[in-house]
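for the writeup, i need someone to sanity check this before i put it in the appendix. the sequnce is what the collaborator sent (i think, or maybe the updated version? ugh). structure was predicted straight from it, no edits. if anything looks off just tell me and ill rerun, i have time this weekend
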Amino acid sequence: QNRRTLDLIASKCYFYHSRVFELTNKLDLIRGLLHARLRTSTLRNDFEGQAVLINCLLRNYLHYSLYDQADKLVSKSVFPENASNNEWARFLYYLGRIKAARLEYSDAHKHLVQALRKAPQTAAVGFRQTVQKLAIVVELLLGDIPERAIFRQAQLRKALAPYFQLTQAVRLGNLQRFGEVLENFGPQFRTDHTFTLILRLRQNVIKTAIRSIGLSYSRISPKDIARKLGLDSAEDAEFI
């Protein structure tokens, strides 16, 4: 019992130690220590320590956009089944980010939905906002439109407002509106770690716009399509 208590205390120390290095922008300096502690925790069957350290390392890699290293860590480690729900929620969120960056959108969406289910429903509002933002973008990349009810939740409404406007632009295939959303909320999307993924949505917006044009015209040239959509050339329209 005493050892279990010490393991829990140690796991909290790992988390806050890593957090201090993150706040001072020195996360890369602690990576070796985290790996060493993870090996020790694994040998001692310290499940909570393993969970916290894996999550700290994943956060470390993702902070520097080292997605390949993060994916390698996931493949070479086993996340403990009996870890707390909070640690599972974090792990599933990081897994969702990794899969989304690697274009594996179906898996990414599945992990993000699981993260939302594991997260506390009455607390951790900031975490749920973060996960939901990414889930919305991934759902759009899958070609689906998120339910309007998601944006109406009291605790999420304000945080998701830019993503509601993004969803509207994608749903309508409005390339001009999409550009305005990027211009107005680009800094916020970068802070949310969704900007790169949102840029990929441009193709989806154009495809939706072309489908709408196809329904309105029995015959139209690629040059006219490019002019209507504000594309650089007719070749761009033909390619899409």
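The mean pLDDT is 87. The longest helix spans residues 2-23.
thx in advance!!
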